[in-house]
Design brief:
Blueprint: H1 25-36, H2 51-66, E1 76-77, E2 87-91, H3 106-110, H4 119-125, H5 133-146, E3 153-158, H6 161-172, E4 178-181, E5 184-185, E6 193-205, E7 211-216, E8 222-228, E9 232-241, E10 246-254, H7 265-270, E11 279-282, E12 288-292, E13 297-298
Antiparallel strand pairs: 1-11, 2-6, 3-8, 4-12, 5-10, 6-9, 6-13, 7-8, 7-12, 9-10, 10-11
Length: 302
């Protein structure tokens, strides 16, 4: 399942960057910056140099760009870097449940439209001005939910837990038992960005079919759920942060990225192109991975 964002995505999905605070502005900004920030790698001009010198220049340029990348996009890596002892910068957003949007019951969510052409009505309903950060975030979420999927992808924006389960069962199997996985923070900390070391690869989870659901900025919780017909690997890993944080993090590795947009933030961050490399990414704690309830194989190495 390709991540279009996040996509998060992965994923992974393009969202605008909010520039002021609002009732759910922090979440919107984090998701937007994670899933929509296009990283521009400006090539410096100059005379042609030997291949070795050019490689050194590219590495220096990449390191310089990395210094200016928004931390919220630092969730991507490749399989070659996925090993015990690997240390990498990772962003895990921390959201306060008391001030974050709530998950609505299906009956309540179904009672109002969820459609871009109904945005003026929705803004009045939630008392948001047309040019407010909330309005911009709502428009972006609705636009993304109504956009066409990439080749081989099935997508759905769930407005309730029940609708998310219905979609998941349609993908994995109406009669299949399903289970969800999410990142777990073992320690409480306000630090959202730091270097983490992979202490252990706790398990590799078979993923013949998979649905990933990412939270989207909206007055109530919206899950952007999608699945793609391509080979994926799902892992749970134990991370140790420089700040002594410990995280049991969920990881999805996409082995086929040939259908992804060339402008996907992961390609620009990792310096690869569609179809030439796997792309793995960590999941925030409020994003879900749905899988068939299959036997789980413990693993401490790839």
């Amino acid at each position: 399942m390709g991540v279009k964002f996040m996509p998060w995505i992965l994923f992974l999905h393009l969202l605008v960057i909010l520039v002021s605070k609002c009732s759910y502005g922090d979440e919107a900004r984090e998701l937007a910056e994670t899933e929509n920030k296009l990283l521009e790698f400006a090539l410096e001009g100059g005379e042609e140099v030997s291949t070795n010198m050019k490689d050194m220049h590219d590495e220096h340029k990449h390191a310089h760009v990395m210094d200016h990348i928004d931390p919220s996009v630092m969730v991507f890596f490749t399989l070659k870097d996925f090993k015990k002892g690997k240390r990498m910068p990772i962003h895990f957003p921390k959201r306060d449940p008391a001030s974050s949007p709530k998950l609505w019951p299906k009956q309540q969510a179904d009672s109002i439209p969820f459609s871009l052409n109904q945005l003026p009505y929705l803004l009045k309903l939630f008392s948001f001005s047309p040019n407010s950060p909330q309005a911009i975030a709502m428009q972006s979420t609705l636009s993304e939910c109504e956009s066409k999927p990439i080749k081989g992808e099935v997508k759905f924006c769930a407005t309730s837990y029940e609708s998310m389960l219905d979609f998941t069962h349609r993908i994995i199997g109406l009669k299949s038992d399903i289970q969800s996985f999410a990142t777990l923070h073992q320690t409480k900390s306000s630090v959202t960005f730091q270097n983490y070391t992979i202490l252990d690869i706790l398990m590799e989870i078979p993923a013949p079919k998979m649905v990933a659901c990412h939270t989207m900025p909206y007055p109530y919780i919206i899950f952007y759920c999608h699945s793609q017909e391509s080979e994926n690997r799902v892992y749970r890993v134990l991370l140790h942060g420089d700040n002594e944080d410990r995280v049991e993090a969920m990881v999805v590795c996409h082995l086929d990225t040939s259908q992804w947009s060339p402008t996907h933030v992961s390609f620009q961050l990792l310096g690869v192109t569609p179809g030439t490399s796997s792309v793995c990414h960590f999941f925030p704690s409020d994003h879900l991975i749905w899988l068939p309830k299959l036997q789980i194989h413990a693993s401490s190495s790839l």
